[in-house]
């Protein structure tokens, strides 16, 4: 087998593409060749937030699509050659949340430890149990969800994080109703997915809010009907800063719902005027990846993409080889980049 490579955060602020060792999958696990991986803001968050709870060394990347190359013992639903999207928000099946029938709130997604190593033999921690900035990775079978043949990997990978997070924040977390007025603060890949979700939900008005003109233009292409502030039934803070959170709250009409999606830097705070919150009967929700469940949601999102209901192709603004990872990370957040997709 050819030598494997991966983008490794070996210690604080130290990132490099290096040779890695990928072991064969154990019971209930699958070995996946990564065909495409989106470069998500959360990977930058892992670097900037000192590993973001992942023990060093860390294998970056968590928005991947690929092909199953081999399966471990007890894997029955997947076979070599299957095309899959990797999911980071799977359910364990036996925690308190899972036991009470809420797998979407599971906080203990299964992992496949002890399969990925650096050249020096130290064990890698794959970001969000996936590790997709690599030629191969190993994940639990539940984290590999089959996708239809017609969907190219470079589009399919976006379902694994940005699209599942954005669309499901609308449909699952906030449960936007047909005819609702929606505002989206922050129009990167997740924000554009929120806009698409709002369009699918039948929102009557979709306001895009972003400091970048290019992003507002993109937002219109994906379904935004207006740009700028105005009263809404649902506001989505895709940024997660004090200013955006407080702006989102201020936009809510009576009975409105603010949903926090964006990851905030450590220590970030925001203030809430309680009498105003009370008189508005406002609700504040946290969307953890849109509360998506890969096994249920990925096939549906893939079908919508094939049906033309969900525009994935338009979100892939750059394709690059794995060794262009640094530039890809540097341009996360640039106005003209929705998603860079690396093809290892
Ligand atoms: Zn669970
Ligand atoms: Zn992500």
Beta-strand segment tally: 18
Distance between the termini: 15 Å
Gross morphology? globular
Strand content: 25-35%
Count of helical regions = 10
Oligomer: single chain
Q: Give a short account of the largest sheet.
A: 7 strands, mixed
Low-confidence stretches: none
The topology string of helices and strands comes to EEEHEEEHEEEEHHEHEHEEHEHEHEHE
If you average the pLDDT, what whole number results? Answer: 97
Helices, strands, pairings?
Blueprint: E1 4-11, E2 14-22, E3 29-38, H1 41-48, E4 58-59, E5 64-71, E6 83-86, H2 96-99, E7 116-118, E8 125-126, E9 136-140, E10 144-146, H3 153-156, H4 162-174, E11 181-185, H5 189-201, E12 205-209, H6 213-221, E13 226-227, E14 232-237, H7 242-251, E15 252-260, H8 274-280, E16 283-286, H9 294-307, E17 316-321, H10 325-330, E18 339-343
Parallel strand pairs: 4-8, 11-12, 11-14, 12-13, 14-15, 15-16, 17-18
Antiparallel strand pairs: 1-2, 1-4, 2-7, 3-5, 3-9, 3-18, 5-6, 6-10
Helix pairs in contact: 4-5
Describe the protein in words.
- There is one protein chain.
- The chain is of the alpha/beta class.
- The protein has ten helices and 18 strands.
- Strands 3, 5, 6, 9, 10, 17 and 18 form a seven-stranded mixed sheet that branches.
- A hairpin with a 2-residue loop joins strand 1 and strand 2.
- Helix 4 packs across helix 5.
- Bound molecules: zinc ion (ZN) (2 copies).
- One zinc ion binds next to loops.
- The site of one zinc ion has 5 residues, from loops.
């Amino acid at each position: 087998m050819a030598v494997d490579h991966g983008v490794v955060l070996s210690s604080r602020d130290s990132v490099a593409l290096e040779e890695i060792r990928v072991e064969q999958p154990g019971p209930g696990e699958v070995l996946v060749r990564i065909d495409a991986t989106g470069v998500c803001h959360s990977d930058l968050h892992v670097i900037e937030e000192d590993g973001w709870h992942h023990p060093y060394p860390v294998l970056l990347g968590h928005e991947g699509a690929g092909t199953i190359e081999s399966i471990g013992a007890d894997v029955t639903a997947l076979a070599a050659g299957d095309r899959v999207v990797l999911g980071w928000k799977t359910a364990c099946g036996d925690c308190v949340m899972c036991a009470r029938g809420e797998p979407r709130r599971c906080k203990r997604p299964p992992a496949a430890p002890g399969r990925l190593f650096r050249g020096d033999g130290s064990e890698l921690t794959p970001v969000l149990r996936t590790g997709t900035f690599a030629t191969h990775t190993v994940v639990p079978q539940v984290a590999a969800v089959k996708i239809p043949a017609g969907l190219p990997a470079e589009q399919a990978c976006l379902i694994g994080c940005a699209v599942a997070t954005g669309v499901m924040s609308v449909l699952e977390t906030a449960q936007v109703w047909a005819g609702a007025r929606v505002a989206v603060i922050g129009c990167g890949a997740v924000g554009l997915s929120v806009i698409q979700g709002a369009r699918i939900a039948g929102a009557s008005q979709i306001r895009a809010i972003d400091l970048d003109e290019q992003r507002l233009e993109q937002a219109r292409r994906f379904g935004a009907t207006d740009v700028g502030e105005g009263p809404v039934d649902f506001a989505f803070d895709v940024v997660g800063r004090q200013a955006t959170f407080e702006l989102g709250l201020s936009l809510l009409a009576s009975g409105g719902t603010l949903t926090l999606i964006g990851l905030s830097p450590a220590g970030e705070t925001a203030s809430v005027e309680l009498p105003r919150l009370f008189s508005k009967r406002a609700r504040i929700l946290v969307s953890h990846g849109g509360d998506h469940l890969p096994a249920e949601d990925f096939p549906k999102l893939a079908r919508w993409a094939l049906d033309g209901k969900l525009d994935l192709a338009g979100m892939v603004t750059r394709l690059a080889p794995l060794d262009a990872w640094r530039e890809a990370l540097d341009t996360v957040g640039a106005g003209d980049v929705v998603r860079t997709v690396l093809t290892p």
